[in-house]
Amino acid sequence: MRPIRLALPATALLLCALAAPAAAAAPTASGDWTAAPASGGGTRPSADGRPYFYLEGPPGAVLEDTVSLSNPSGAPLAVRLRGAAAYNATNGDFAVRPTPDPWITLAAPEVRIPPHTRADVPFAVTVPSGAQPGDHPAALLAEAGGRQVGVRLQLRVSGPTLSALTVESVRVDKAHGLIRYALVNRGNTDLAPRLALRADGVFGRALNRPAKALPVELLPGQRVELSEPWPHPPALDRVTVRLDVTADGGAHASAGASAVFVPWGAVAGAGLVALGGGAAALRLVRRRRRRSAEESVEVPVAERELAQTGVPQ
Questions:
Q1: Residues 258, 238: contact at Cβ < 8 Å?
Q2: What whole-number distance in Å separates Cα of residue 62 and Cα of residue 67?
Q3: Are strands 117-126 and 5-7 parallel, antiparallel or unpaired?
Q4: Buried (b) or exposed (e) across 284-312, using 16+ Cβ within 10 A?
Q5: In 3D, which of 82, 5, 70 has the Cα closest to residue 32?
Q6: Helices (H), the chain
Q7: Are 118 and 71 in contact (CB under 8 A)?
Q8: Residue 192 vs residues 172, 176, 183, 213, 247: alpha-carbon distances, Å
Q9: Which residues contact 54 (CB under 8 A, 6 or more apart)?
Q10: pTM, rounded to two decimals
Q11: Where are the alpha helices (DSSP H) in 59-155?
Q12: By CB atoms within 10 Å of each CB, which of 46, 60, 64, 96 scores lowest?
């Protein structure tokens, strides 16, 4: 592995920034010091700087690249480095594992950078001989002064690739005005999914949204929980919601769910009116029965017998 290289003069740093504005835009965090891919490295080298690392090779290969750390301040800086495998957080955010990635080896785990200096630190990615083909996203993390900077590392192991996904757990959350669902990457490539959404009800189409890009990068083998706002659903209808998701490489999946919308306030009001009318009718029947009972007079037994014989009294 190549040794760490320092670019000492501050004027050299200024000239470099002016000569390569794309490289100056590559750092991934604000603050005094920065971390970014060094120009001219990786499987697809670029002299104008790169927003992330890209490495590709077969199982068993050793792939090399360089991270550039800049310290424009007037004090020395100690930067700790490590590589970490990446995954999707539940909400779809790009996140990294808390433990070092055994595939990534840095020339030094900690680098001391003098003031007004840039340090280029080589690293290597050793692809295991039994590694599965496809994308294996990771990141290089640099930490100093209580701040951590991550630089994306896109690694692809050569071999057959498959783009595939599924849509799962679709449901209408009426309480929050949302359509909730999950996406699962069933293939071995990173996916940038697009979602089309519609809802058909008894009274016609209640929702129709054309395909749009989702703000998530779905990594291989990952599951994310997402939602779409539906602030104005129908007041009274039974609808079937359908989600169609596509991505590059031919990935496509669909799923749906049903929901019933009832204006319970109006129903409750009508029910109270009906209940009140029923109670009034019941009270009326009871009053009539009581009145009938009060007006009826019992005929004495002797009078009943005379009436039956026809004998005048």
A1: yes
A2: 16
A3: antiparallel
A4: eeeeeeeeeeeeeeeeeeeeeeeeeeeee
A5: 70
A6: 10-19, 21-24, 264-295, 301-309
A7: yes
A8: 24, 27, 11, 7, 6
A9: 42, 43, 44, 154, 156
A10: 0.74
A11: none
A12: 60
Q: How far apart are CA 188 and CA 206, in angstroms?
A: 36
Any bridge partners for residue 168, and if so which? Answer: 182
Residue 15, pLDDT score: 27
Question: How far is Cα 254 from Cα 178, in angstroms, rounded to an integer?
Answer: 18
Give the three-state DSSP class for 16. helix
What are the pLDDT tens digits along the chain (313 aa)? 777 777 654 333 322 322 233 333 344 443 589 999 998 776 665 656 788 999 999 999 999 999 999 999 999 999 999 999 999 999 999 999 999 999 999 999 999 999 999 999 999 999 999 999 999 999 999 999 999 999 999 999 999 999 999 999 999 999 999 999 999 999 999 999 999 999 999 999 999 999 999 999 999 999 999 999 999 999 999 999 999 999 999 999 999 999 999 986 655 554 554 555 555 555 654 565 455 545 444 445 444 444 444 444 4
CA distance 1 to 133: 25
**Residue 136 neighbours by CB distance under 10 Å:** 23
Instruction: Report how far residue 246's alpha carbon sits from residue 12's, in angstroms, rounded to the nearest whole number.
Output: 47
Q: Name beta bridge partners: 87.
A: 95
Residue pair 155/209 in contact (Cβ under 8 Å)? The answer is no
Phi-psi region of 98 (alpha: psi -120 to 50; beta: other; left: phi over 0): alpha
pLDDT of 40 reads: 76
Residue indicated by tokens 């999914």: 193
Q: How far apart are CA 18 and CA 1, in angstroms?
A: 30
How many C-beta atoms lie closer than 10 Å to residue 189's C-beta? Answer: 20
The total number of residues written for the chain in this structure:
313
